[in-house]
Amino acid sequence: MNKLFSKLPVLGTVLAASSLILPSISLAQDCYDNPNLITSSSKEFIAHNDGTVTHLQTRIMWQQCLAGMSAGAGGACSEGELELLNWQQALQYVEDLNDAGGFAGYTDWRLPNAKELTSVIEYGCSKPAMNLQIFPYMAGTRVWSSTPSVNQASATYLKTWVADYGDPNAGSGSDSGAVTFANANRETQAYAVHLIRGAQ
Fold first, then answer.
1. Are 193 and 94 in contact (CB under 8 A)?
2. Can you give the residue ranges of every domain in the chain?
């Protein structure tokens, strides 16, 4: 990933505003005193003030809150109840959302693929390796990808990748480009949904 923001302030300063909004989440986050690691600066996003942001580098629009959560008056994704779904339920959730009129005026939401999930990781922080000013309430969550992994012989063992930005090894002050992905059973495991629209 290109390090386009090496001249920006240390991410701890960039994310300071989020600590006012989400103290219980941001206090657990570790950010590193190395401006060369900043990969997801708030300046890299356009906020649309409707629960969505556009990532300038990829031109992908993201919902700021995970499925089931809403920003509410404080904009902190603190209202509602987090939806934890298996893979088929996650796909159905997207279809139902789009059929019911969508979100923020758009009806082409979808699950991100593994590469798209990687595009918004913040290498300068871990637990979670995300910019909490842009994406509040990301700590301790695994998020479904649309990318299937190698399937086993039985349908019971069909797998799909999930990104784990809360894993202590994701980010971790390293610019190695590693994102923690887990190989999850589509039928029996339940994770969060973070929807996108746009570039494919």
1. yes
2. 11-198
Segment-wise mean pLDDT, segments of 10 residues, the chain, 200 residues: 28 31 48 68 90 94 94 80 92 97 97 88 81 83 81 58 71 49 74 88
What gap in Å lies between CA 34 and CA 171, rounded to an integer?
A: 12
Count CB atoms within 10 A of the CB of residue 14.
24
What are φ and ψ of residue 37, in 5° steps? -90, -10
Of the candidates 31, 16, 12, the residue with the CA atom closest to the CA atom of residue 126: 31
Phi, psi dihedral angles at 117 (to 5 degrees): -60, -40
For the entire predicted model, the pTM comes to: 0.76
Query: What is the number of other CB atoms lying within 10 angstroms of the CB of residue 27?
Result: 9
